[in-house]
Amino acid sequence: MRYFIFLPAFLFAYCVSAQTNLKDGYVILNSGDTLRGQIQEATWSLNPESVIFQTAGNNREYRVAELKGFGIGNEVTYVRFHFTYEQTATELEFADETFEGPSVTTDAWLRTLYTGEYSLYEWAVRQRIYYFYTGPTVT
Asked: How confident is the model at residue 26 (pLDDT cuts 50, 70, 90)?
């Protein structure tokens, strides 16, 4: 009898976990065109390297190089940046006196935290969280 109770509970949990979490959103193509549809939202504790976008019942996975950015409702916005950062040690015992590490250049979607004259962005990767800002250009 225990097996009969366990099996339906297991199947229910499996079916619930297999469902997608689609939220209204948009993607901004490299051409600048905006497509509206639904984005499969995940619990992104790290910045995503791809997103699954659905429109008219068709799913498409986009990678960083394919989109200028994307957004989910009015809650979350990611914008692609090309940037250079210093990959310093994340633990004191591995750091040298200057805390300087190699410079690394990459493309990534940064999460928008604040937009204004100065905008603030977050890039969460396995080693740490980096913060970047943009502001007026001084000429």
From this structure: very high
- Residue 127: domain span: 2-134
Task: Tell me if 61 is assigned to some domain.
Answer: yes
**Rounded to whole angstroms, how far apart are CA atoms 81 and 17?**
33
Cite the beta strand spans of the chain per DSSP E.
22-29, 34-40, 50-55, 58-63, 67-72, 76-86, 103-114, 119-124, 129-134
Total domains present in the chain: 1
Residue 134 CA, chain-centre distance (Å), reads 19
State pLDDT tens for residues 90-112. Answer: 555 656 666 566 788 999 999 99
CA distance 36 to 42: 18
In a domain, 139, yes or no: no
94 within a domain of the structure (yes/no): yes
